[in-house]
Amino acid sequence: MFLLxxxxxxxxxxxxxxxxxxxxxxxxKFRKLVWLTTFLTLDLIMFxxxxxxxxSGLGCPDWPGCYGTSSPFIAHAQIAAAYQAMxxxxxxxxxxxxxxxxxxxxxxxxxxxxxxMVIAWTARVKKRPLHVSPWWPTGILLLIxxxxxxxxxxxxxxxxxxxxxxxxxxxxxxxxxxxxLAARMTPIPSLDTAAARWMPxxxxxxxxxxxxxxxxxxxxxxxxxxxxxxxPLCNGQxxxxxxxxxxxxLWRALGMTGDGDxxxxxxxxxxxxTHRTFAVVVVLYLLWLALRLRRFESLRKPANGVLxxxxxxxxxxxxxxxxxWPLPVAVAHNGGAAILLLLLVMLNFRISSSRPGxxxxxxxxxxxx
Length: 369
What we know:
Number of domains: 2
Keywords: Cell membrane, Disulfide bond, Heme biosynthesis, Iron, Membrane, Metal-binding, Oxidoreductase, Transmembrane, Transmembrane helix
Largest sheet: none
Protein name: Cytochrome oxidase assembly
Structural class: mainly alpha
Transmembrane segments: 6-23, 35-53, 104-123, 135-156, 162-183, 195-215, 273-291, 303-323, 329-349
Membrane topology: Multi-pass membrane protein
Helix content: 55-70%
Mean pLDDT: 90
Pathway: Porphyrin-containing compound metabolism
């Protein structure tokens, strides 16, 4: 019964953006739905970071509901008992609501993607020119189901770092695929075929960023942000004592080594130092790439966006250390990484579209379903 209640909550939340798209008086409803889903997915990723950073990941220690119910309201007695037994533990009414809101919004994103799939398959059956294969939203739905499975394991395996990091990366993969689809549905004013030769460089930049985000996720899920308390040095040294073996042992419990011992400070330093050092490589490469790509008119706006986000990421990353990990800055740093990924996806799409024989979708050819 509570599963049906959860589904209805997700549906009710999804009806708000669906209604917004459908009341717009134009013929680009499917494209607007894709863009709106992309934007809301970005918001969900940032809220997921907020959930993790407020230690709310176990606010409801079961899944998909909260103590077998659809709402912390209904589970009030169980939450109060858990909080009374352990006031400093992971369960409280505030944390339960943060965790359940994250789940509600995730279900709403799932409903929006199901709506995309229904529209695309209906257009295929009725032979309407939607200019997108229905397998796109179908594949995205499979991706969000996999993401949901890792969300469940995040709870049931008690925030195991490799599961939480994979959950983050799958969320970013979802954002990237939605961003690519949104870009595919949007006409580009002009294309320069000379930009096509930058496709390998842009793809490599995206790969570097994904690796850096994975390292950042590993820092966050292991709570290693303050393992280095100064900048640019790490605990007063350029190369401090580190334990890479324990720090990067993937399959282990939170705060423990693979052998079941408490993880050492040197292991946390290794995690933090690696993320910080690799950031130098990524920043220098992306700066060079964006400065080169902004020479092309069709790439100038996303390239400028990459330059701006690199500056913001540097400032928020440094502030996390200097200001002792304030919550708004930490959430902004997570969101900045997601925005940077989305911008690089847009750049890669536009460069790919610059190849001879590849054309953008004309705006007048995209119709509602």
